[in-house]
Amino acid sequence: MKRRTTKLYPVKSVPFCKFWDIKIPHHTPHKLLFSYAYCWSNNIMFQYDSSSDTIKDTYFVDFQLSKYANVANDLIYFLLSSTKLEDKISKFDHYIKYYHDKIVENLKLLKYTKPLPTLRELHMTILRHGTYGYSVATGVMGFVLLDPKDSGSLANLLKPSEPGDETLCPLHANPRYRKHIALVLPWLLNRGALAKS
Q: Which residue stretches, if any, does this entry annotate as coiled coil (predicted)?
């Protein structure tokens, strides 16, 4: 584990704005979209088919963090904070291809007049903004993988009291989280997402 942690130290010097895309100029407007920016399971409402118990439709709820941003933010957030360990990394590129197919299909339906984004451009955008993956992996992914319990409420996490302190340790000591982070951090490192530039 020491080998991995020493490679994370350069991440500390990455400017905060790089994690959140604050005031970073975007020269390719067709890669920008209305970013949901809060894309995890608690903020998606599922409509089920009553006869087959399959998902019929999905709706995003809670738009408090939405912004105009690049596509990488939502994709990295949603895929890396997934609870399904076996798909998170092994099917990452598959999900990017699926997203690309759907975005192109919808842009054509909307009679979008600018050049359509290519799959290569989408992958390059994700690589360019891969540093955000570190923020997701060390932040929201821990919350998503916590087992439900009373002391793990957000209110307790924000209190400067003992109940809040008790929940911080399980956030990263959780065996589920440790399995995920052991897979995600080397993957981010090997993609160059943890490099300074």
A: none
